[in-house]
Amino acid sequence: MTMEVTLQKFKELLGEVMDAQATVALLQWDEEVNMPPKGAPARGRQLATLSKWVHRTFTSEEMGRYIEELLDARDRLEPDDAVLVAETHHDYQRQRKLPPDFIERFAEARSHAYQAWVEARETSDFSVFLPHLETLVALLRQKADYIGYEDAAYDALLAGYERGMTTRRLKSLFADLGPRQSALLHRILNASHPQDFAWLRQEWNEEAQWAVTLHMLRDMGYDFDAGRQDRSVHPFTTNFDVHDVRITTRTHPRELFSAITGSLHEGGHALYEQGFLEKDRRTLLAQAPSLGIHESQSRLWENTIGRSLPFWKHYAPLLRAHFPGQLDDVSPEAIFRAVNRVRPSLIRVEADECTYNLHIILRFEIETALIEGVMQPAEVPDAWNARMKALLDIDVPNDAHGCLQDIHWSHGEMGYFASYALGNLYAAQLFEKMLEDIPGLWNHVEHAQFQPVLTWLREKVHHVGRRKRAAEIIREVTGREPGAEAFLRYLEQKFFPLYGIPTTEAGIGA
Amino acid sequence: MTMEVTLQKFKELLGEVMDAQATVALLQWDEEVNMPPKGAPARGRQLATLSKWVHRTFTSEEMGRYIEELLDARDRLEPDDAVLVAETHHDYQRQRKLPPDFIERFAEARSHAYQAWVEARETSDFSVFLPHLETLVALLRQKADYIGYEDAAYDALLAGYERGMTTRRLKSLFADLGPRQSALLHRILNASHPQDFAWLRQEWNEEAQWAVTLHMLRDMGYDFDAGRQDRSVHPFTTNFDVHDVRITTRTHPRELFSAITGSLHEGGHALYEQGFLEKDRRTLLAQAPSLGIHESQSRLWENTIGRSLPFWKHYAPLLRAHFPGQLDDVSPEAIFRAVNRVRPSLIRVEADECTYNLHIILRFEIETALIEGVMQPAEVPDAWNARMKALLDIDVPNDAHGCLQDIHWSHGEMGYFASYALGNLYAAQLFEKMLEDIPGLWNHVEHAQFQPVLTWLREKVHHVGRRKRAAEIIREVTGREPGAEAFLRYLEQKFFPLYGIPTTEAGIGA
To answer: What are the structural domains of chain B?
Structure first.
């Protein structure tokens, strides 16, 4: 075969894999959004079959031959094709390293662990989950061995979510970030500040909440001809194509801001996925290089922009119009304070910007200790509770509100959490640079003119797809290594004025 | 391999095919119900890939080996397993007969023909569609040759929808049915009868229409924990499992009954699919033996029950409650007359029970003449218009309202339409027997007690799945061959009293 024919056959086979992967995503989306309850067992089988077919085709000898031939001819490939082949080679090798019987054992262990976790959390009984956690940790260590690593076994797991990042680097990053963010938090908690959140305790019409989220998503630039918003228990974003990117959110009558912040968050993810290049469709290039970069997009829209004062100067009237009589005396500043209330809490997904990373650091410490074998699964509850006390000064009343709160471990996922913290750090670094590049950015935000923000993100991040690694993007866009400085500056400049603490620099977004 | 191991491997492979086929159905359902418009091109590719994977796996050498081994061991198989192997063998052979390059050429021709048909119908210009119809007819004749037939090429096409039925049998059936139904129609049209349908010309709240359909579906026994109703342009039923059977309907503010009759129709299909046996899941046995039998279920609920006077004696108050002030002076009898208005019309999908089969007979005559080569595609419009005049005494103003109205031919589907008429005939035969078997059936209907009807259908039809052919079911349940007598009796007994025409027997449902 000529190189051209091989390239075409390679792209067609990869395209089929991507088609089938999009179909898996549709099966999952439908499961969360539409599926009647009795459909669950059949859906489980459909997902298992399709995942198996995807894996078999992607790791096939045929795919291997194409990759090999194209790697040999890499000097004659167009740059985009060369990157595509290299990226596919990377994923191909990673997936081929796991023997089919290991994948099967792992899937079975996950399935049992998930069911045990559901029961353990309901009854707050860690002992129900413990044997499964032991099995999963053993399997994860085995997985790391299959994949291979230079320095730490945990590196092999990290690579599945945050490629290029190392355990050593994260340990040093979090060793710096943890104490500094904790100190900053305690300055805020010790500050005296106005505390009038009584107006939040009202009933908020859920249809009105929904309408507000749609309005904001449209303003952000989310294309409803290439997406839709639905309701689900846990908000998420998924895509079946660059022109079919769907988000979900949830409304609650007692929570004014949970649907809004949820939609802004998922909207940030969705704008990223709607922003991949059309020419990258059906290839691995229309993907984020890491979960951390993906999360930087959601955090930037939800937190940096969506919890800023200029944002609420614009949207306070919209809220008032949708909740007539309920917000007449509530100023944009009051909303700004409400959406930035700092309150250490037990639950990660409810954490504010000042405490969130501390929840992550705790999980990272436990995960690495488990994989390194210096902590046993049975020790997790005590370790969890001790670190919650140290980092957030909170007593954990039971394991359901402690080490059993997250679904991730029951799914056999370790190495995932760090990406959430990295998302915060990346977002702050990107935003600092954006502020330099876009004159009058906050003025644009105050008029809901988000096009400059979106255009900047499209150019610097979205269009890149998987052509570069996360660290490379941050380095090239900001001129700095990924790090904690920008995020800590951001917290200080936003929260110190809010809580009446003197700061030397002008506040950002305040 | 022992026979047991082969059987298990066979069922697992077939199960995977069924899982993937359910996934294809989900891709299609989502396309009609949820997909944002820009998602269409990607969806087309996903459907093509998944269909290809399904076909490849189902027609694989591996599947062939299992079938062969199990056929050799058929005497030692459980009866259900023996039927399953035989049915799978049937489909396997049929699909293997078409060479892959033919399937590809056919798919391409269909795709072009569909696009041409959309344009031809919009502009009512048959010449745009003609070359594509010529290509498709040639390909369909070739398909018939690949599949093979004894008597008529059209038999090979029929077998894809109405297995066991022959062209010869249908010709003789329709030669009898056509003139008799036409004569019956003309007696009705010549009768003088009350014509007060002015009350229908109101605006009907669409949410209220929706609520009425949900109420009726629940009463029928449709399990909303194993299904759901959504909106789509063209109502349809689909299933991803016996416990995930979904229907769609459409509301229109000027049409009181289109959503209701649509939901009853799809609800009939859905009750059938929710009624397949759980043990048949993931096999070909959880399927209808023919489209005609499937259609008999929808027609029975929509027409025989849903357009009966007892039905409306029960539901008239529900309608009044949902449309306050709009139906105060409208009696159940007036509704009964309205949903049974006989009015020859141009469009098949809007046809009443007295004219519907005539639309089908016209199409059957043209299709068989095309496949037999005694009519050329260019002659279709004239033939269509002449038969519309003869059968329904209607002048066709243009081809968009004539031979271009149906999507089927543009999809390369011939042999399909007869099933719609057979559905009417089967429904009438089944219902006659049901009336004998269930004492006080109409009294049950008048109290919306549909359990006896559903139980009867479950036992006689639904639970059978694909274990028997259509004709076998009709024969075993009713003691008669499939035929037109019961349907003609049904029409006469229902419509003659409605239109003041003397009849010798007591009216059914009137």
So the answer is: 3-140 (no CATH), 200-346+438-473 (1.10.1370.30)
Q: Please say whether the beta carbons of A256 and A442 come within 8 A.
A: no
Query: Phi/psi at A55 (nearest 5 deg)?
Result: -60, -45
- Phi/psi at B233 (5° precision): -65, -45
Please report, in angstroms and rounded to a whole number, the separation of the first and last CA atoms in chain B.
62
Sheet holding B237-241, edge to edge: B227-231, B244-249, B237-241
**Which tens digit of pLDDT belongs to each residue from B226-265?**
999 999 988 999 999 999 999 999 999 999 999 999 999 9
CB A310 within 8 A of CB A509: yes
Note the Cα B440 to chain centre separation in Å: 29
Amino acid of residue B153: A
**Identity of residue A166:** T
User: In this structure, are strands A227-231 and A244-249 parallel, antiparallel, or unpaired?
Assistant: parallel
Residue B334: partners with Cβ closer than 8 Å, 6 or more residues away: B196, B199
> Is B34 touching A (CB cutoff 8 A)?
yes
CB contact under 8 A, A19 and B49: yes
Q: What percent of chain B has pLDDT over 70?
A: 99
**Segment B127-155, tens digit of pLDDT:** 999 999 999 999 999 999 999 999 999 99
Beta carbons within 10 angstroms of residue A191's beta carbon: 14
Cβ atoms of A498 and A340 closer than 8 Å: yes
Which residues have C-beta within 8 Å of that of residue B447, sequence separation ≥ 6? B314
Among the listed residues B266, B187, B170, B246, the one whose alpha carbon sits nearest the alpha carbon of residue B484: B170
B393: left (phi over 0), alpha (psi -120 to 50) or beta: left
- Whether ipTM tops 0.90, in short, is yes
Distance CA(A86)–CA(A403), nearest Å, equals: 39
**C-alpha triplet B55, B60, B66: angle, nearest 5°:** 125
Residue B245 sits at φ, ψ, to 5 deg, of -120, 115
The sign of the CA dihedral B215, B220, B226, B229 is: negative
Instruction: Kindly state the percentage of chain A with pLDDT values over 70.
Output: 99
CA dist., res. A299 & res. A287, Å (int): 18
Contact present, B438 and B304 (Cβ < 8 Å): no
Q: Does B79 touch chain A (CB under 8 A)?
A: no
pLDDT at B454: 98
Interchain CB distance below 8 Å, B16 and A52 = yes
DSSP B229: E
What is residue A504's predicted lDDT score, i.e. its pLDDT?
63
pLDDT lower than 50: segments of chain B: 506-510
Closest by Cα among B113, B127, B177, B151 to B365: B177
| CB within 8 Å: A27 and B23 | yes
The Cα–Cα gap between B497 and B352 comes to: 16
**Chain B closest-CA separation from residue A245 CA (Å):** 9
Nearest to B35 among A50, A224, A244 (CB): A244
Rounded to 5°, the CA angle B151-B153-B154 comes to 105
